[in-house]
Amino acid sequence: MFILQTTAPSSRSTSKLVRGLVFVFGALVLIWLNAGTRLSCEKATVGSGGVECNLSLWAFNAIPFQEIEVHDVRGITKRAGVGGSGDRGWGGAAVEHLVFITERGTESLGYFADQFAGDWQKLDTAVKQGKRTELVKEHSTIEFLIAHLAALAALLYGSRLLLQTAAELKDVADVASVSSASRPD
User: Fold this and answer.
1) Paired sense of beta strands 105-108 and 36-43, if any
2) Per-residue b or e along 30-65, where b marks 16 or more CB atoms closer than 10 Å to that residue's CB
3) Percent of the chain beyond pLDDT 70?
4) How far is CA 153 from CA 24, 57, 102, 103, 147, in A?
5) What pTM does this model have?
6) Does residue 87 contact residue 93 with C-beta atoms inside 8 Å?
7) Radius of gyration of the chain (CA)
8) Which conformational region is residue 15 in: left (phi greater than 0), alpha (psi within -120 to 50 degrees), or beta?
9) 3-state secondary structure of 137
10) What is the pLDDT of residues 22-80, one digit of tens each?
């Protein structure tokens, strides 16, 4: 007779697993929110003769991890508030959105592009003249260091918890397979 013995992971390993995942996820969000942002616009090399704009995000201001492109840009403007109503954002600051005007209508690239809304006239002039322009938004050195050191610490701690949990679960699986293999049929 074969009896399968299983051992469930302890609540301690489950707790470590959850904490590890939360720390790793939190570190990734912190890196994403503090990414350096570059917005470049240049005359399209092929196609309708419009301008192509590219928004890229850089982790640690060195590693590109996300790019968004808008094609056939004819102009750039800004819109105040959510839905253009002039609503205020967190802390009472006025929210401005950068809007790309294309042949298909208007496009907004979200939070990271909105950081350049204050320079919309410079961008619009460059787009209408077909000139290459690039704007870069980086956090101050102290913000950069604090955010990225915190993210690195959270990533290392979370990874350590995940590795410990994996080792504990492997030990539980090894004990279960040894005890089931030693049972007579």
Assistant:
1) unpaired
2) bbeebbbbbbebbeeeeeeebbbbebbbbbeeeeee
3) 77
4) 10, 22, 43, 46, 10
5) 0.68
6) no
7) 25
8) alpha
9) strand
10) 999 999 999 888 889 999 999 877 666 678 999 999 988 888 889 999 988 889 998 87
